[in-house]
Amino acid sequence: QVQVVESGGGFAQAGASLILSCVASGRTSNMYSMGWFRQAPGAEREFVAAIVWSGVGTYYADSVKGRFTISKNNAKNSLYLQMAALKPEDTAVYYCAAANGPMWYPITTPPDYWGQGTQVTVSS
């Protein structure tokens, strides 16, 4: 089992930046990837970004490419999402996730482990 806990959500104005953090614990040696998903009110949960945990590789949704940056610190079992040039449509609950395999397209299987989510609200 892997546990993940997010932090760093909050309020921001359009154009501002926020950083989300996530710490993983438990059987992290089995993790292949970690990433971020988000769910806006009335919408389905959607993929945002992911990273290969014990290797190289980052993946982004088209809607955040060029604005968001995912990074990791393996020694600290930590994952980060730097969000810049925020837009009101980025408003959502952001979830940290960990998986024993890939979590990006064309994989559609949901990640194995989820955090409880952190709210990000962007005002115009």
What would you note in describing this structure?
This protein has no helices and eleven strands. It has strands spanning about 1-5, 10-15, 20-25, 35-40, 45-50, 60, 70-75, 80-85, 90-100, 115, 120-124. The strands form two sheets. Strands 2, 4, 5, 6, 9, 10 and 11 form a seven-stranded mixed β-sheet that branches. A four-stranded antiparallel β-sheet has the order 1-3-8-7, with no helix packed on it. A hairpin with a 6-residue loop joins β4 (about 35-40) and β5 (about 45-50). The protein is globular.
> Quick check: average pLDDT?
95
C-alpha geometry: globular
Considering DSSP H and I runs of 4 or more, what fraction of the residues is helical? under 10%
**SS-based structural class?**
mainly beta
Number of discrete helical segments: 0
Alpha carbon gap, first and last residue: 40 Å
Strand count: 11
TL;DR?
This protein is mainly β. It contains no helices and eleven strands.
Provide the descriptors you would attach to this structure in a database record.
124 residues, mainly beta, 7-stranded mixed β-sheet, 4-stranded antiparallel β-sheet, 0% helix, 52% strand, globular
